[in-house]
Specification:
The chain is built from 6 helices and 5 strands. By secondary structure, the protein is an alpha/beta fold. It has a single domain, classed as 3-Layer(aba) Sandwich (Rossmann fold). The mean pLDDT is 92. It is found in: Cytoplasm. Belongs to the bacterial CoaD family.
Length: 166
């Protein structure tokens, strides 16, 4: 019998939404080990620091014994190969995500032919949620409790206040 399949779920998670949580839950039903890989996000301006995003993700997934949270910078390929990953989990919300994710999967297959990309869709009630929308709603004073866990909501509201955007 071979090694258990390690799946990597990469993203910036700025912040982690209920949709992300749902994809993690679904991934744990398929893989014995899931690594939530929090990207340093060199190409995106993140609201939360890398350490804050890691802390929130760890808190959100703490009930899943087979889930670990780690950060990475540089090529995702290097991170996945170093961890022995054999699957990469990607969440798909809508058709608009598919084009980008399909291209990304092709590039990743070229860089990591031994790693399969697995697309998971969140539950219907989470398919429209994005971290970008959640941040914008929070900054503009809207209700975000339907989109993020209570812990993430508290951290996001604290961040908005600290930035003077409330």
């Amino acid at each position: 019998m071979g090694q258990p399949v390690i799946a990597v779920y990469p993203g910036t998670f700025d912040p982690m939404t209920l949709g992300h949580e749902d994809v993690v839950r679904r991934a744990t039903q398929l893989f014995p080990k899931v690594i939530v890989a929090v990207a340093a996000g060199h190409h995106k301006k993140a609201m939360f620091t890398l350490q804050e995003r890691i802390e929130m993700a760890r808190e959100v997934v703490k009930d899943y014994a087979q889930v670990e949270v780690e950060s990475f910078s540089g090529l995702l390929r290097d991170f996945v190969v170093a961890r022995g990953g054999k699957a990469m989990v990607r969440g798909l919300r809508a058709v608009t995500d598919f084009d980008y994710e399909f291209q990304l999967a092709g590039m990743n297959r070229s860089l990591m032919p031994e790693v399969e990309t697995v697309f998971l869709t969140p539950s219907d009630k989470y398919q429209f949620i994005s971290s970008t929308f959640v941040r914008e709603i929070a900054v503009l004073g809207g209700e975000i409790d339907k989109f993020v866990s209570p812990l993430v909501q508290a951290r996001l509201m604290q961040k908005v206040r600290s930035l003077g955007r409330d």
